[in-house]
Amino acid sequence: MPVVKRVPSTGAVGEIGIVHLGLGAFHRAHQAVYLQRHLERHGGSEWGVCSANLRSNRTLVEQLREQDGRYHVAEYRDREQVTLREIGVLRQALYVGEGGAELEQLLQRMAAPQTRIVTLTVTEKGYCLSPATGRLRLDDPGVVHDIAHPQAPRTAPGIVLEALRRRRAAGVAAFTVLCCDNMPDNGQRTREAVSALAAQQDPELAQWVLECVAFPGSMVDRIVPAMDAAAFTQLAQQLDCHDPAAVVCEGFSQWVIEDHFPLGRPDWEAEGVQMVADVRPFETMKLRMLNGSHSLLAYVGVLAGHTYVADAINDADLARLISRYMAEEAAPTLDMPAGSDLAGYASELKARFANDSLQHRLRQIAMDGSQKLPQRWLLGAQQLLDQGRPMPCTALGIAAWIHYCSQPQADGTAQQVDDPLRATFADLAARFSGEALVDAFLALDQVFPAALADRPAFRQAVHRASAALARDGLGNLLPTFATFDQ
Ligand code: CS2
Q1: pLDDT value at position 205?
Q2: Which domains does the chain have, with CATH numbers?
Q3: Which residue lies with its CA nearest to atom 10 of ligand 1?
């Protein structure tokens, strides 16, 4: 049984200064914990949070309301040491669904002068951008809806924009918009989503968004598996915690934020947040080293028959593949501030992946690959090719992803692919096979930028990996990555 340190919530939370969109497990175990520690340090806080779920998990919102916004976060450093924190900063929880009264409540809350920051964790697809180019997808049904009905928005960019429009009309200064999703240059991408949507509705509003709204970038990091029955049982048995809104996560947590908050912010640095002028090197490092390895483990690991991240990284062949990917295909593409230790970072990541107190499903990471691959693998692959370097691990990852998205599981049952392009994948799988199927995937321009998809060295590498996977099978292919020893 682990040693449990229990930290109750103390201190009074004042007005709501932050509105958050995306009340998922990650928000509850990351941003909310930093704000909770801020609250406890000061014995009170003017940074209460209103958090809204836009379309998923109404039950959680109702549960949190019953609990007056209080819930627990179990931070597992390892099997032996756990901190169980009570979180008390969540003052309001909303479920927006398809419009209705709570959308209006949310918009009013966002438009209120007390709201100084709006944060988002709505996942990559929530921004309605093309993953390959970062431009707003005007053919996205949510975007089409929001252009036609700006005052009853459905998408996250549409909700942010409508709240900003109300503030501008009322002469209230714009809140700061802080994106906390795993996208490259995530502040700029969010700015593109909101301003490009505004340009479709009202060019003057678009100009105002570009001139008057701050969209700082951020790098967020904490491994927070989705809660499932096994995780709730673990909490009950090990920690005597019976909270249906609880979250389990690792002990590690990192947040790097571009320091640009015109209406003020909590003194986050006291809680260990790195406030910097340029967040991009940190974000790129994390996306390619951590998330890139995660996706590689997910697609190759599922094919190898694993269920959880910790099992996959304990498979010696997979561990070697990940070491090689980080050292030879991710690190060489990074331009880090002096003194950064990428080899140390890589070892730390492998240790975090091996934390077997977390039941982190590979399939959770495999979700939404079409939205994740560009920033995790493809931007780096372009740089590798520019440097004349090979990319065998990335190519194997892409081959495994294509396999995962188009082929049945080993036992013949259908693969449960969870991705906005799922129907497209199924269509391609029905029409093509072998080399033609790989070509059809590489032609998906939402995922593969033309500049990469047209490069012969890239195409060859992916074709070679797919052919080897089909011919030799993963079991024979993986040991060939053993030449790298670290
Ligand atoms: C994971 C991330 O699900 C995924 O795609 O790679 O959620 C990852 O666990 C976090 O970014 C860690 O900070």
Answers
A1: 98
A2: 3-276 (3.40.50.720), 280-483 (1.10.1040.10)
A3: 223
